[in-house]
Amino acid sequence: MRQNFEWKVKRSNKTTFHLVCLMDNCTWKLRVVRRDEGTYFQVRSFVNEHTCPLEEIYRRHRQASAVVIGEVVAPRLQQQDGRLMRPKDIITDMKTMYGIQILYSKAHQASQYFLSLIYGTHEETFKLLPSFGYVLEQQNPVTITDLQCDEDGRFLYFFMSLGASLIGFRRCMCPVIVVDGTHLKGRFGGTMFVATAQDGNEQVYSIAFGCGDLENILSWEWFLDCLNGALGHIEDLVFISDQHASIKAGISKVFPDATYKI
Fold first, then answer.
1. Would the pLDDT of 55 be above 70?
2. HSE (CB half, 13 Å, CA atoms) of 111?
């Protein structure tokens, strides 16, 4: 990578791994063969000299994959000012250290890869949701969580309402709740459902959160049903939202005695 040369695989099987330069007439090559007595490979030939012309050097470098870049920049994940490296920081870093100009998309993939090395993958995080919900309820009295999966055991919905938020709303807030949903960006997408109120300082007061696949009648009925179970019966309850038909249908079904305002 430092010299901006690229190679390609000429042969790869269980016993032989043969690399050559990307340019057909170049003499650079590396050939390794597995030894008979074990799983180790031995270098049989290595010509570490490129005879291809300089004008044929590719500066985007196919061997500078997102995984390789991620492992290279991982030790410098946190910068001197405390910020995590962003894709544009990775582009600058690779240009300065190796003279390689990479695309923003590859830098973004590299950042996602080294974050997965530090914090784990999204798939691993989803698997921790049952444990997270259990510990959250054990350590925070009155907290309510709910996890729903589909028939194949894959994540479908997750609801969370902290006990402190529920107690504060019941004791100190006007019985007016604003509900809305927002689309989530990222690999898996989905929708976040929120229920908020307004405190005495006219600040937003969070009551509950939920995550689901889509913003439809089924998902809103699930979220509102969880919210109803968390809040219990509240006199003169009022809901405020936009004109989303699924929200209106869900409130009419789950909170038939509540007042609905647009």
1. no
2. 18
